[in-house]
Amino acid sequence: MSTTTPVPDEIHRELTIGVPRERVWAALTEPDQLVQWFPTKGARVDLRPGGELYLEWDEQSATGTFDEIDAPNRLVYRWFPGGTELPSTTVEFTLTDADDGTGTVLTVVERGFAQLRPEHLAGNEEGWTSELQELVDYLNATLKSRH
Amino acid sequence: MDDAGRVFTALADPTRRRIVRELSIDGPLTATQLAPRVGISRQATSKHLLALAEAGLATGEHIGRETRFELDTRPFAEAESWMRAIGALWDRRLHTLKAFLEGA
Domains in chain B, ordered, with CATH? Predict the structure, then answer.
């Protein structure tokens, strides 16, 4: 980002997981593992540049397109929460060895929110999970009660 | 359109992002004051300011022949709560991922 605004354009998370990078990589890229934590009902992964990531929940689905695949170091995909005709966010996973020599430091950055259109945000549209809407409602209620 | 939608629409334009940034640092400002900071004409700056005002993201106060614009921070709070919600979603996913991998 060359400019900053009152609203941040990216989400950044970092955590240490006590397993080697290869196992974290498998959890990020293998459908049967992905469904465990993302969590989704179903997942399809075409793990090659330009390949599709497809996730489905009970009543909706969303897709991504892989941009960079460097096992077990770096995985980047464009994520289309509102369908492929609308702007995407970019999700970037970076895996490095933890200092203890056995674990993995996993960094997740999702960016591009400022490019999203209101269709993404104006309610529980296709592509946004109801889980997310619940969280938004909860956070809004929390915000209001603080004022 | 809700507040978050208006905020993200307004911020989708890089010039408007710069204007919002300047207003958040130094507002209220007039189009004449803003134009050199953003590097576009006063007329173009005025147009962006009016768009921000129409979206409810800024308010204008007439001072003589000029209008001074100030950010209205309330809609930004809603957009921030969206970002926090998506962040919270990642927190939950990553917590589950860690538990899944560490066999907790």
Answer: 3-102 (1.10.10.10)
